C-alpha cells in the first residue's frame, strides 16, 4: 500500500511536466504553421496574387500602416496592382498565444518595394493577429510601422 501511495504521488508530480511538454510541442507546431502561413502571404503580395488574401483573411480583416487603414476588399484589390516588390526578408519572429483561438505574431521585415509611385519603407515592425475560425487559421489584423 505504501508503494502504491509513493507511486501515485510520483505520478502526480510528473503529470504536470508531461502535460506542459505536450502543450509546448503543440504550441511550437502552431507557431511554425502560422509563420509559414504568414510567409505565404508575403510571397503572394510580392507576386501580386490576391488569392492568398481572399482565402486566408477574415471578412472583418483590417490592415493598418502609415498610409492608413484598409479592409479585406481594399487589400485584395490593391494586391493585384499596387506594388512592385523586388525583395523582402522577415526575421525576429515572436509568437504569443492569446487564447486557444487567437495568436499574435510579431517580427521585423525588410523590403525593397514601390507602391503606387512611392518607395515603401525599407524597415518595418510588424504585428499580425490570426484567429481560428472553424479549424482554419485566418489573418484578422495586420499592422506595420516603419
Termini separation: 66 Å
> Averaging pLDDT over every residue, what do you get?
89
Instruction: Please state the second-level CATH architecture.
Output: Roll
Label the overall shape.
globular
Give the number of domains.
1
Structural overview:
The protein is of the alpha+beta class and 146 residues long. The chain starts with a helix and ends with a strand. The radius of gyration is 20 Å and the shape is globular. It contains three helices and seven strands; from the N terminus they run ααββαβββββ. It has a single domain, classed as Nuclear Transport Factor 2, Chain: A (Roll), CATH 3.10.450. Strands 1, 2, 3, 4, 5, 6 and 7 form a seven-stranded mixed β-sheet that branches.
SSE blueprint and pairings:
Elements: H1 2-46, H2 51-56, E1 57-65, E2 68-71, H3 72-79, E3 83-99, E4 102-115, E5 118-119, E6 123-133, E7 136-145
Parallel strand pairs: 1-7
Antiparallel strand pairs: 1-2, 3-4, 4-5, 4-6, 6-7
